[in-house]
Amino acid sequence: GNEKFFSNKWVVAAAYLLLAGCTTAFIITNWEFTLFDDAGFLLRYLGNFAKGYFYSFNPQDGPVFGISSFSYGLITGLLCMTHLATPDQSIVVASVMGLTGICFFLLKILQRYGMNAMQLLLSFLVILFGSKFFLNSMTTGMETPVHLAIVMSAVFLFVAKKSSAMWLMLTVSVISKLDAVPLAVTLGSIHLLENRKNLFPLSWKNKAWKEMTLFCLLPLSAWIVFAFAVFGSPLPQSAYSKIYFHFHGSDHWFPFLQY
Q1: Are 22 and 28 spatial neighbours (Cβ–Cβ below 8 Å)?
Q2: pTM above the 0.90 mark?
Q3: Residue 91 and residue 145: Cα distance in Å, rounded?
């Protein structure tokens, strides 16, 4: 029964997606979704996204990289800029998307270790519900669900030995948030060590070097150029934006009511 089930990758993917969706719905509806800490700071950005200003804490100051996770700010910001969701709604939508992705890739990773269906399900539930801190972080409006889903996709591609996609998602993980750098360096190094015999000759025709260049070095270089051009730096400027930009005057007759 297990072998027949796992042999059809489309059935497995559909089952995992259904389980991920149901698990996400259960968590979102049973844990209080309370915006916490920097989520309030994010709302300011999203309000300006909705007005057409890209990554701006104050429209008059232009873009500033004040949200530590670029991917989270971009996803929620685009939802607001296109008016598909309000700032509050976009945070919930992004959290649901992220948590669903986490559940899906967790199931895919566990499957790689030869578990039967019951072992896989039990491991999945223990990992997800074994820590209230994890569940709380999924429902506070922070960037954790989206960023962790991206990281989990990279981990899955690593254990599945899908090298091109792995390099791309490791790069996206680093762009998403810099705390993924140690993980990306570690997994990338392990991959190169495991495939060290394929690293020679040092030639563009060598598949190993071509994959790393096309799916890691070039996207990372493009991000650095973009970040310098738009923000002045690829490093998050969260503290700077909070300390400096927060004190700019408002043209609203009563700023307290505006925010």
Answers
A1: no
A2: no
A3: 10
